[in-house]
Amino acid sequence: MSLAWRIARRELRGGLRGFWVFLACLTLGVAAIAAIGTVRGAIEAGLTEQGAVILGGDAKVRLTYRYAEPEERALFESMGEVSEAVDFRSMLVTGDERALTQVKAVDDLYPLYGEVQLKPAMALDAVFAGRDGLAGVAVDPVLLARLGLSVGDTVKLGAREFAVMAELLRMPDSAGGNFSLGPPTLVASEALDGSGLLAPGSLFEADYMIAMPEGVDLEAAKARVETALEGSGFRWRDRRNGAPGISRFVERLSAFLVLVGLTGLAVGGVGVSAAVRAYLAGKTEVIATLRSLGASGGLVFRVYLLQVGVLAALGIAMGLVLGGALPLIFGPLIEARLPVPVDFAVRMRPLAEAALYGALAAALFTLWPLGQAEHIRAAALFRDAQSGVKGWPRPVWIVVCAVVLAALVGSAALLSGLAMLTLWAAGGIMAAFVLLVLAALGVRVLARWLARRMRGFKTLRFALGAIGGPGREAQAVVVSLGLGLSVLAAVGQIDSNLRNAISGDLPEVAPSYFIVDIQPEQLEPLTGALLARDSVSKLESAPMLRGVITQINRQPALEVAPDHWVVRGDRGVTYADALPEGTTITEGQWWGEGYAGAPQISFAAEEAAEIGLKLGDTLTVNVLGRDITATITSFREVDFSTGGLGFVLSMNKAALEGAPHTHIATIYAEESDEAAILRDMAMAYPNITAIRVRDAINRVSEVLQGIAAAITYGALATLVTGGIVLIGTAAAGEKARVYEGAVLKTLGASRAAVLGNFALRSALLGLTAGGIALLTGIAAGWAVSVFVMETDFTVAIGSALAIIAGGVLATLLTGLMFAWRPLATRPAQVLRARE
Predict the structure, then answer these.
(1) Separation of alpha carbons 770 and 791, rounded Å
(2) Per the CB 3.0–4.6 Å rule, which of 517, 551, 611, 671 could disulfide with 620?
(3) Coil, helix or strand for 683?
(4) Cα 103 to Cα 483: distance, rounded to the nearest angstrom
């Protein structure tokens, strides 16, 4: 090793010429993974360190449909200072304009932690004091702009008027809340008296935030609450995980982005391998000389392994510096876009993970050409020394490469936290890699075959001959560009299909409005008035309660189905006597009309199959603090994609009829009359809340747009790496093109013909890479859309054509970038130098 190191060190004194592609690919891949990990770590640290601020207290107990009973409130107050907040949807009204808002009604202790950000800056007491005899509110600036309001104007919530005292920029506990369809409004709880918004049965959530003394055992406090409130349908959260939904989302999104980063490393690996191969080809004379002096193949391997190892360490170090520094530099911009506090700092774990991935990727893509270099013999001094490294490495290096690949995939599966997703993604990347390699070989064979049979198209024949001839240009271009375009194509197909599922199909069949909080005595006059309008084609209504599934077959529901959305929170529950029109029973029987026996449940068939429910199973549903245990007697089809009324849980009428509740309705109307319908309803029934379906779709689309942007940026980083490989490949082939151009000119070819030859071969390789990428991207998009998103899949033609055009344009521009020197060189100079 000392001899190998001495030789390697002396060769490295010659500089890094030929290794800039190697360094750039490795640096970018490691930097992308390090940056993603650093941002994820900053968010997780912010959630952990600011857990109490995000939650609104050291602990929070949420009750649905009800306030805490006196003895429950006393229990909370025995643990510390308690602040009560009520959360619900309503309509903010000004004149003839109205918009959906998420109202947060708080007491005078709010917030226990953190500060409410207002514009102009003022105390909450001053906001709630109001002016001119009106109580005050703070309203989100987006909502004010939508309604054409400003600070000082008057608005209505329910039957009461309020003065807008400030713009609500941020509430400290807003990140810990649920997804909201409307911008927030902050109001004092006592100011809602007489508004009619919180009548019996109205849908609201009461939160009790508790500020506890230091050193309190949170697990013991949780156990006390669970014992005292058992069976009351409460939800407990504490500062240890103040925003579980955001934590889960960040974990999954960052894991997916790490996979995109690993794809970038795979693309860069092609460049790394090509750079090592080109470097060794240039060192053929040196290696042959060493062999003639008695050096063994093992010594040659160690010499260049040490050189590559030093350069790989340099590339990884540069990637770690870049990936660790970028989040710190752009931290303020990132923080401004996030709804949670973040703590940007240099963290060792994401950097160590990125270094591990970089080292394994560098080893995977360099061991093969290094193993081939062992076969260079002393006789190469008397042959073409530029022929490069060829053949297969020894079996031991093939086995080592397989082990390194397994280590890379296994590390990603273990560290990402989503093992199955990682394994499937790794399988997809490897399948795409193999397909692209085979496609490159097929293109060379096809190009040679076509070149022999074309007589009249000289430029095309020469281009095809160059593609099918010796050299690795076709393989490097097709594989590197194809992998990058495959990721981008998959993201484009997934994004397009997800947007179509949300905003493409629904407007044709979905209702205009969802109406909630309809009091029982309001249902008949409201539906009568709506159906009397010519613009209303259909109206559906159903009783509506909220319930939490606490047990499945007497076992805790979260233990039986821990990851299923149906048991993670409260769900809409309805009841019916006769079988509702249009309902399809898939298994079992509906209870008969007038049934008044033991509680029975009809459950959504698809969700039941996912959880593993069967006829005869029992569910315990907590409604308004009361446990109702019922038997599943039927399964039915529930199609949520229509946008109409759909309940996972439906019970017999006698089981729920006596509970305080409201009704929900859907209105199908002509779009031109929607605004008038909303105005008339709000004037006649100020307590009801109307959710416009198109606005809800737009809100969800905004969230998806942010997710799609993050994934697209990751895919673009992969594509940039592919571009670097393209440039490196073109640069490495420039010497060969100079000679080729000289020969063509000597044979009478014009400069235009030579340029056309170079451009045509580049465009053909780009077309191949784009076409293969399109196939793999569509396959990946189909798999994710159908099996993960569970949506229909159609090929996005616009995105598909853009991918193919992008492949052609990228290779064409890169090829032309390195075509000017071959065109400008005089043939005599080149041919004499060759001689």
Answers:
(1) 26
(2) 551
(3) helix
(4) 48
The tens digit of pLDDT for each residue in 584-608 reads 899 999 998 889 899 999 999 989 9
Q: Which residue, 409, 325, 323, is CA-closest to 37?
A: 323
DSSP secondary structure code for residue 561 in this structure: S
Rounded Cα gap, residues 290 and 182, in angstroms: 74
Q: List phi, psi (to 5°) of 135.
A: -65, 155
What is the residue type of 727? I
Name the token pair of 835.
């001689």
Q: Name residue, tokens 């917030």.
A: 111
What one-letter code names the amino acid at 244?
A: P
**Three-class secondary structure of residue 353 per DSSP:** helix
| Rounded Cα–Cα distance for residues 204 and 79 (Å) | 25
Tell me the C-alpha distance between 804 and 740, whole Å. 28
**Rounded Cα gap, residues 580 and 365, in angstroms:** 63
Angle between helix axes 797-817 and 751-783 (nearest 10 degrees) is 150
CB 519 within 8 A of CB 197: no
Mean pLDDT of 455-471: 76
Question: Read out DSSP for 709-751?
Answer: HHHHHHHHHHHHHHHHHHHHHHHHTHHHHHHHHHHHHHTT--H
Q: pLDDT tens across 795-812, in order?
A: 888 878 887 888 888 888
What are the phi and psi torsion angles at 68 (to 5°)?
-70, 140
| Three-state secondary structure call for residue 277 | helix
DSSP-derived 3-state class of residue 769: helix
How far apart (Å, rounded) are the C-alpha atoms in residues 812 and 800? 19
Q: DSSP class of residue 671? A: G
Kindly indicate the confidence band of residue 255, based on its pLDDT and cuts at 50, 70 and 90. low
The separation between the first and the last C-alpha atoms of the chain, rounded to the nearest angstrom, is 39
Torsions phi, psi of 252, nearest 5? -70, -40
Per the structure block, which two tokens stand in for 401?
């490469």
How far is Cα 513 from Cα 99, in angstroms, rounded to an integer? 12
CA distance 567 to 241: 19
Sequence-distant (≥ 6) Cβ neighbours of residue 352 within 8 angstroms? none
Do residues 596 and 522 touch, judged by C-beta distance below 8 A? Answer: no
Q: Which two tokens stand for residue 568?
A: 């993670």
Cβ atoms of residues 464 and 451 within 8 Å: yes
Token representation of residue 8: 């390697």
Q: What is the pLDDT of residues 374-398, one digit of tens each?
A: 777 766 555 554 455 567 788 888 8
In this structure, is the dihedral angle defined by the CA atoms of residues 96, 102, 107 and 109, taken in order, positive or negative? negative
Kind plus residue range of the DSSP H or E element containing 631 = strand 626-636
User: In this predicted structure, what is the pLDDT of residue 707?
Assistant: 62
Q: Which two tokens stand for residue 790?
A: 């569970």
Closest CA to 256 of 790, 797, 780: 780
Q: Can you say whether the dihedral through the CA atoms of 430, 436, 440, 443 is positive or negative?
A: positive
Q: Is the dihedral angle over the CA atoms 569, 570, 575, 581 positive or is it negative?
A: negative
Nearest to 484 by CA among 319, 260, 759, 808: 260
Q: Which helix (H) or strand (E) element contains residue 666? A: strand 662-669
pLDDT of residue 548: 86
Tokens of 426: 């790794």
Mean pLDDT of the chain, nearest integer: 82
pLDDT digits (tens, 9 = 90+) for 122-177: 999 999 999 989 999 999 998 898 888 999 999 999 889 999 999 998 888 876 55
Paired residues of 546 in beta bridges: 572
- What phi and psi values does residue 119 have, to the nearest 5 degrees? -135, 115
Task: Count the neighbouring beta carbons within 10 Å of the beta carbon of residue 41.
Answer: 22
**How many CB atoms neighbour CB 566 within 10 A?**
18
Percent of residues, the chain, with pLDDT higher than 90:
20
Pairing of strands 97-106, 662-669: unpaired
Given phi > 0 = left and psi -120 to 50 = alpha, else beta, which region is 176?
alpha
What does the alpha-carbon distance between residue 366 and residue 280 come to, in Å, rounded to a whole number? 11
